[in-house]
UniProtKB/TrEMBL annotation:
<keyword id="KW-0312">Gluconeogenesis</keyword>
<dbReference type="GO" id="GO:0006094">
    <property type="term" value="P:gluconeogenesis"/>
</dbReference>
<dbReference type="InterPro" id="IPR008210">
    <property type="entry name" value="PEP_carboxykinase_N"/>
</dbReference>
<dbReference type="GO" id="GO:0042594">
    <property type="term" value="P:response to starvation"/>
</dbReference>
<dbReference type="GO" id="GO:0006107">
    <property type="term" value="P:oxaloacetate metabolic process"/>
</dbReference>
<keyword id="KW-0210">Decarboxylase</keyword>
<dbReference type="GO" id="GO:0071333">
    <property type="term" value="P:cellular response to glucose stimulus"/>
</dbReference>
<protein>
    <recommendedName>
        <fullName>Phosphoenolpyruvate carboxykinase [GTP]</fullName>
        <ecNumber>4.1.1.32</ecNumber>
    </recommendedName>
</protein>
<feature type="binding site">
    <location>
        <begin position="219"/>
        <end position="221"/>
    </location>
    <ligand>
        <name>substrate</name>
    </ligand>
</feature>
<dbReference type="InterPro" id="IPR013035">
    <property type="entry name" value="PEP_carboxykinase_C"/>
</dbReference>
<dbReference type="GO" id="GO:0019543">
    <property type="term" value="P:propionate catabolic process"/>
</dbReference>
<feature type="domain" description="Phosphoenolpyruvate carboxykinase C-terminal P-loop">
    <location>
        <begin position="244"/>
        <end position="602"/>
    </location>
</feature>
<feature type="binding site">
    <location>
        <position position="248"/>
    </location>
    <ligand>
        <name>Mn(2+)</name>
    </ligand>
</feature>
<dbReference type="GO" id="GO:0005829">
    <property type="term" value="C:cytosol"/>
</dbReference>
<dbReference type="InterPro" id="IPR035078">
    <property type="entry name" value="PEP_carboxykinase_GTP_N"/>
</dbReference>
<dbReference type="GO" id="GO:0005525">
    <property type="term" value="F:GTP binding"/>
</dbReference>
<dbReference type="GO" id="GO:0004613">
    <property type="term" value="F:phosphoenolpyruvate carboxykinase (GTP) activity"/>
</dbReference>
Length: 606
């Protein structure tokens, strides 16, 4: 018996066989120096943080309570989509948008990489639940990792710790096995680096087995395995099998001046405005917005036939640049409340954080995310474009009380949207569920810094889920159609929005941010039958005068340009949509292909 085995059996805070077997097998494979079962106490967090400060990974921030700064390796700054794999038994089940490797072959590769990969390090065992532990069918996970930075981040992002392990033991619950290593074993006496990682990276998912193996990266969506890997890729496969939806969506509660409440979920691709909309401060008098989630929504039918959404996460992992008092004051307040980790932002000389867009005036001197001196004359941004704040949901001053409800909130409207300079209007309502699924399936957006690769290229990002669907995209579309065809379903209305359309002089046609509340008002007016709208080839637009622009200081003409459905743009779009469906192959449902023909004829192009 190795040291680890003795240690594991004697000190494990659970007697659950499945859990012990899993942890033991990973310890045997990865050969860590010790095993630490994560409890989630304040004392544990303090000591982990102190260790990370000692190692140079974290710097305490003088200006923010219990908050830390981290700078990653410059080559480990975002999700790596080209190193992300869906290892289903059949290649066809991974579909055309995923990288597929045979599961047996991937397991062999991983076994080699993980063999001894935690040498000289501590292996942490993080018991967690996505959603609520007292939900009807709680979705548990155990992440083993050799990164204490991941532990501290996971304790913010998910409900985790000893109380979750106890609950799992009580229920003898199934759990998703999440295995993570930064891939940087330490030889005896070898010094560690502040951000250990490996140039070889594998973010591998086994959807049938419901397990995740992540190697080589310590960053965000690659390493906090409860988030994108579990709550979207694996959960989307579970949701397909169980008849629900796991989506890349924010959840927002809106209350009108008359006290009418509506719940909205919205899917925008990474770095396209979910966190901002989730924390919107309406500019229209009397309107109130409250936050339920900013990135992921799990939606299931309730007994009344409505779709109920829960946020499976417990924290925000928000894009820092562009977040400031004038754009997202609610997020700024959340950050001020402390208990946060900031990664790849810039440091001020007095021990605070800064990033582009936080303040209008730039500080005279900073330490940039690479650790270099920075002044306003510097050519490179001070914060990495994908720098992030990791903050507990409880810090959000606009948190809705329903956040504690394990069954979630009934969704009235689903919004799809992307970042498009042209073509896509500010807002349009789809005709019905199938048309909404069609519009979601052709969602398009310019790429952002949230993933490695070229930024600013238009690509299709169906339902904002392109990098996150754990199975064949065509089957995923069919699943959405099936949800709509569920007997007794009282479905949300589906809208499509674009805050990012530009004028000829390249300026934004719509001021965005808090002013998006005017678009939300029109949406609520549609839901409640107060706005009649006007029909276009692609959906229902606000009729002239229906969008409230009072006091906004923009002209009716500018609004008309933001809302315009231009036939010449749509002729080009249609061709691109046809190419897209061809590219996706024969799993695309006939019902959606039929939507393309109908759009073609509505555009007068048949
Ligand atoms: N012009 C404009 N920019 C916006 C608007 N909303 C958000 N942004 C900018 O878009 C960027 C990303 O916004 P987020 O709200 O963090 O995006 P997200 O969808 O939550 O991103 P992920 O966390 O990567 O999934 C930030 O730089 C924002 O300032 C808007 O209404 N108009
Ligand atoms: O997953 C991440 O690293 C951050 C995120 O929310 C996204 O990219 O959508
Ligand atoms: Mn996201």
């Amino acid at each position: 018996m190795t040291v680890v085995e003795t240690d594991l059996l004697s000190s494990a805070p659970t007697s659950n066989r499945r859990i012990l077997d899993f942890v033991q097998s990973i310890a045997t494979l990865t050969a860590p120096e010790r095993v630490h079962w994560v409890t989630g106490t304040a004392e544990e967090k303090r000591s982990l943080a102190a260790e990370l400060v000692e190692a140079g990974t974290l710097k305490p921030l003088a200006k923010k309570p219990n908050s830390y700064y981290a700078a990653s390796d410059p080559d480990d700054v975002a999700r790596v989509e080209d190193r992300t794999f869906i290892c289903s038994e059949r290649e066809e089940d991974a579909g055309p948008l995923n990288n597929w490797v045979d599961p047996g072959e991937m397991k062999r590769t991983l076994s080699e990489l993980f063999a001894g990969s935690m040498a000289g390090r501590t292996m942490y065992v993080i018991p967690f639940v996505m959603g609520h532990a007292d939900a009807k069918d709680p979705k548990f996970g155990i992440e083993v990792t050799d990164s204490p930075y991941v532990v501290l981040s996971m304790l913010i992002m998910a409900r985790a710790g000893q109380h979750i392990l106890d609950r799992m033991g009580e229920l003898d619950a199934e759990f998703v096995e999440c295995v993570h290593s930064v891939g940087a074993p330490l030889a005896p006496g070898e010094d560690d680096v502040p951000w250990p990682c490996n140039t070889t990276k594998y973010i591998s998912h086994f959807p049938e087995e419901r397990s995740i193996w992540s190697y080589g990266s310590g960053y965000g969506g690659n390493a906090l395995l409860g988030k994108k890997c579990y709550a979207l890729r694996i959960a989307s496969a579970i949701a397909r099998d169980e008849g629900w939806l796991a989506e890349h969506m924010l959840i927002l509660k809106l209350t009108s001046p008359e006290g009418e409440v509506k719940y909205v979920a919205a899917a925008f691709p990474s770095a396209c405005g979910k966190t901002n909309l989730a924390m919107i401060k309406p500019t229209l008098p009397g309107w109130k917005a409250e936050t339920l989630g900013d990135d992921i929504a799990w939606m299931r039918f309730g007994e009344d036939g409505r779709l109920y959404a829960v946020n499976p996460e417990a924290g925000l992992f928000g894009v820092a640049p562009g977040t400031g008092r004038h754009t997202n004051p609610v997020a700024m307040e959340a950050i001020e409340a402390g208990n946060s980790i900031f990664t790849n932002v810039a440091l001020t000389d007095d021990g605070d954080v800064w990033w582009e867009g936080m303040t209008e005036e730039e500080p005279a001197h900073l330490t940039d995310w690479r650790g270099d001196d920075w002044t306003p004359e510097s050519e490179r941004p001070a914060a990495h474009p994908n720098s992030r704040f990791c903050t507990p949901m409880e810090n959000v001053p606009t948190l809705a009380e329903e956040w504690q409800n394990p069954d979630g909130v009934p969704i009235d409207a689903i919004l799809f949207g992307g970042r498009r300079k042209t073509t896509m209007p500010l807002v349009t309502q789809t005709f019905d569920w199938a048309h909404g699924v069609f519009m979601g399936s052709v969602l398009s957006s310019e790429t952002t810094a949230a993933a490695t690769g070229q930024v600013g290229v238009v690509r299709r990002d169906p339902m904002a889920m392109r990098p996150f669907i754990g199975y064949n995209v065509g089957d995923y579309f069919q699943h959405w159609l099936n949800i709509g065809a569920t007997r007794g379903a009282k479905l949300p209305a589906i809208f499509y929005v674009n805050w990012f359309r530009r004028a000829e002089d390249k300026s934004f046609l719509w001021p965005g941010f808090s002013e998006n509340s005017r678009v939300l008002k029109w949406i609520v007016d549609r839901l409640s039958g107060r706005a009649t709208g006007t029909e276009t080839a692609i959906g229902i637009s606000p009729a002239p005068g229906e969008l409230d622009i009072e006091g906004l200081g923009i002209t009716e003409e500018q609004v008309a340009n933001a809302l315009a459905v231009r036939p010449e743009e749509w002729a080009a779009e249609l061709e691109d949509i046809e190419d897209w469906y061809r590219e996706l192959g024969d799993h695309v449902p006939a019902e959606l292909k039929d939507q393309v023909s109908r759009l073609r004829s509505r555009l007068g192009l048949a």
